[in-house]
Design brief:
The complex is a heterodimer of chains A (about 325) and B (about 280).
Chain A lengths: L5 E3 L13 E10 L2 E11 L3 E5 L6 H9 L6 E6 L2 E2 L4 H6 L1 E4 L11 H11 L4 H14 L15 H13 L5 E5 L7 H16 L4 E6 L2 H7 L2 E6 L2 E7 H5 L3 E9 L2 H10 L3 E4 L5 E6 L8 H11 L3 E8 L3 H9 L3
Parallel strand pairs in A: 4-9, 4-10, 7-8, 8-9
Antiparallel strand pairs in A: 2-3, 2-5, 5-6, 10-11, 12-14, 12-15, 13-14
Helix pairs in contact in A: 3-4, 3-5, 4-5
Chain B lengths: L13 E3 L4 H14 L2 H10 L1 H15 L10 H10 L1 H12 L1 H8 L3 H5 L5 H19 L1 H15 L3 H5 L3 H24 L5 H26 L9 H12 L10 H22 L8
Classes of the chains: A alpha/beta (about 325), B mainly alpha (about 280).
Chain lengths: ~325, ~280
């Protein structure tokens, strides 16, 4: 490629934690008669942000709209303060996209494929090849880099999708369900890579997933989506709060009236299994570690047997369930 | 401290401005096709008529007794017609998988997530087929003209038939543009290169068969506009200042050709997208 017409990236603008990397303002996306995104507003700050939600919540649609694949019916989106509708190329030059579904260039081995992606993103051929080798080693495909991509296993295909997204050194990574189809060991390694990128390598990333532990392990902030709308957003630690305690509880007796009594006492209940529920006791509801006694007291008042009571810690699952209103 | 850090490092080099990615696509596509020995054999075979014509020109310019075989302006038109078989094979071999293979491998989302427009992607893919088509039509035809000058040692033939330079260029470019966009549009409709090849062959032969059936019924060549290859032949005849072979007015044939190119571009605009929306 002719390198006479190049822009240097030596001076890389760094995003401050307060500056939003992605800003959404009343974004609506419509597929035929289906509103996939309904007036979504929100901000994705610098660092690692999780995009959480059940299947069909609109996570992938949002990423595709940010990439310019889908034109919103209404609203405005900006990435690095650049309008997606007006500056798609400048934005995509700074984004790495790891799609959910398998994707590769047919007939290429791994190193040629990744180098080719680098060249498509504007890297000179020599630099692209050097970066391809580097990122393939980084994602753990160093030994398999001369194999045709079509012969790769599912886990290896996930890794090469990450490699092609990283080769041009993006400022922002879109990772769409990056651990799909991976075995437990591969999944752990992938999560380690994502965590390393977000926390040690200064790469902003948006991790779209329906797997709560993946988001909780790799991200600091989260945007929870449901039915095409933002249900909750903010730092994970803050969303897990306010300070309080969570119990796993199994009872025998009149469940509806007991849940009503817990609500009346300022506690929140979410069912997690057939007969196990999680009870969140805010700090204000019971002081001085008397929360367990309070649960037992309420059970006694309503003639309910407590079969199981185990203290737990608030998890992202609680945030998720609370946001989605699965009570 | 490790001797060589294999961790992720940030890139500190330069990046090309957007707008040049089509050259990367075209180059990679051409190199990919040229790596196949079968295709190299096909290209060599595609140049065999050139060698035959070059020998003809050499003999006629150096041996007066062979003068009856001396090339005329029509010789170059005939040469391009001889190349039609290779044009057909190259179009199928190179073109059928250009977009269909990318669709099968879900590569469009990879391409279009990079800083390149859809038009750049299409332009890059088109350049691959367009380049090879010119390689078996325009380049040997122009080279034959140059050889004529070299073997004859005079510009007399070229001076007399100077229109041949633009005629060869315009005719081959028109043919290549039509076939490139038609094949690309068909390639974007399927995920199977084999199916695309069958579809292209079917269209070519079906339109020709319909024309011949209509010719048998009406007895007039006015319906030649139905056939893709007849339209091309009609317009190229006019470009070479020859009497058109069909009764269809040549502007009608040209309109059909341009309409087909426009239709192909419209199909490509709809089919080449980063995301397939099913509503």
């Amino acid at each position: 490629m002719d390198t006479s017409n190049v822009i240097t990236t030596r001076e890389r603008p760094q995003s401050s934690p307060d500056t939003p990397v992605v800003l959404l303002d009343n974004v609506t996306v419509i597929y035929g008669s289906n509103r996939a995104l309904k007036e979504v507003s929100g901000r994705f700050g610098a660092g690692a942000v999780g995009l959480l939600g059940p299947n069909g919540a609109g996570k992938s649609t949002l990423l595709k709209a940010l990439l310019g694949f889908i034109k919103p019916a209404a609203g405005r989106m900006t990435v690095f303060n650049l309008d997606v509708a007006r500056h798609p190329l400048e934005i995509r030059a700074r984004i790495g996209y790891m799609p959910e579904s398998d994707g590769h260039i047919p007939g290429m081995n791994a190193v040629s494929f990744v180098a080719y992606c680098g060249q498509l993103a504007g890297l000179p051929a020599v630099d692209a090849m050097q970066r391809a080798h580097e990122v393939l080693y980084y994602v753990g495909l160093g030994e398999a880099r001369y194999r045709n991509v079509e012969t790769y296993s599912t886990g290896m295909k996930q890794r090469i999708k990450l490699a092609q997204a990283l080769v041009h050194d993006p400022d922002l990574l879109f990772l769409d369900e990056p651990t799909n189809g991976m075995d437990p060991k591969g999944r752990d390694e992938m999560l380690e890579l994502i965590r390393d990128l977000g926390h040690n390598k200064n790469v902003n990333l948006i991790l779209s997933s329906h797997l709560l532990p993946d988001v909780e392990y790799t991200c600091d902030d989260v945007v929870v989506m449901d039915k095409g709308q933002v249900a909750a957003q903010g730092p994970i630690a803050q969303l897990k709060g306010p300070a309080g305690r969570v119990f796993e509880l199994r009872i025998k007796g009149d469940l509806p009236s007991f849940i009503e009594a817990l609500h009346a006492a300022g506690m929140e209940c979410t069912s997690t299994d057939e007969d196990v529920m999680r009870v969140f006791v805010p700090d204000g509801a019971a002081r001085g570690g008397k929360d367990q006694a309070m649960v037992f007291g309420l059970a006694a008042q309503h003639g309910v047997q407590v079969r199981h009571l185990r203290p737990s810690i608030p998890t992202l699952e609680d945030v998720f369930a609370k946001a989605l209103g699965e009570q | 401290m490790p001797i060589h850090d294999q961790s992720y490092r940030r890139y500190a080099g330069g990046k090309a401005m957007p707008g040049q990615a089509w050259t990367v696509i075209a180059r990679a596509g051409m190199v990919g096709v040229l790596r196949k020995r079968v295709f190299l054999g096909l290209l060599l075979l595609g140049w065999s008529p050139f060698i035959f014509r070059a020998v003809q020109i050499y003999l006629t310019t150096n041996y007066p007794q062979m003068a009856m075989f001396a090339p005329t302006a029509e010789t170059f038109r005939q040469f391009l017609e001889q190349q039609d078989f290779f044009v057909f094979v190259v179009t199928i071999y190179v073109g059928a998988g250009l977009i269909s293979n990318d669709r099968r491998a879900n590569a469009l989302q990879i391409y279009l997530a990079k800083p390149l427009m859809r038009t750049e992607y299409i332009f890059g893919k088109a350049a691959i087929l367009f380049g090879f088509l010119l390689f078996v039509t325009m380049i040997p035809a122009l080279l034959l003209l140059v050889l004529q000058v070299l073997f004859a040692g005079s510009f007399a033939f070229v001076r007399k038939n100077f229109f041949l330079f633009p005629a060869i260029t315009v005719a081959t470019v028109l043919q290549s543009v039509l076939l490139t966009f038609t094949m690309l549009a068909l390639s974007s409709l399927s995920k199977s290169a084999r199916y695309v090849a069958i579809l292209y062959t079917g269209i070519l032969f079906f339109t020709s068969a319909v024309y011949h059936a209509m010719l048998a019924i009406t007895g007039s060549t006015r319906v030649s506009w139905i056939s893709l290859s007849a339209n091309l032949a009609q317009v190229v005849d006019v470009i070479f200042r020859l009497k058109p072979r069909y009764a269809t007015p040549w502007p009608v044939s040209l309109i059909v050709i341009l309409g087909l190119v426009a239709l192909s571009i419209s199909v490509l605009e709809r089919r080449v997208r980063g995301v397939e929306v099913v509503t």
